[in-house]
């Protein structure tokens, strides 16, 4: 026997079963919006770095990443170009893996290196969680990955 008030995806009963159609129709769109916003936020954040890709060399060496010029260039490219790829949904999982790593380093930087604790690392923790979601989920049907029929 099927209970029509059950949300099949989560296996829970909806308080207002009439909203099932709304939730179902907005599911992919909400996920796509989150991916695009996260990608564009990375592009915006990385734009200053890509203009001076070696500008963070001293900072990354201060975190123990040597040679600083190499890691600074990689950081710049990961944020800027990774953001573009994430927004498009192209190579979603590898990009999300790289950007999640970058965000976890910023958590360490703010929490431990700068001694700011949770309040200093909060934004990086939130962004790392969003990017980790796409590392696990990949691109949805509104991604370039889906359009070409391939993803990691």
From TrEMBL:
Entry membrane topology: Multi-pass membrane protein
Pfam families referenced in this protein's UniProt entry, alphabetically: DoxX
Presence of the UniProt keyword Membrane in the record: yes
TM stretches of this protein: 69-88, 95-112, 124-140
InterPro entries in alphabetical order: DoxX, DoxX-like_oxidoreductase
Compartments (UniProt record): Cell membrane
Keywords: Cell membrane, Membrane, Transmembrane, Transmembrane helix
GO cellular component: plasma membrane
Entry similarity comment: Belongs to the DoxX family.
Name used for this protein in its record: DoxX family protein
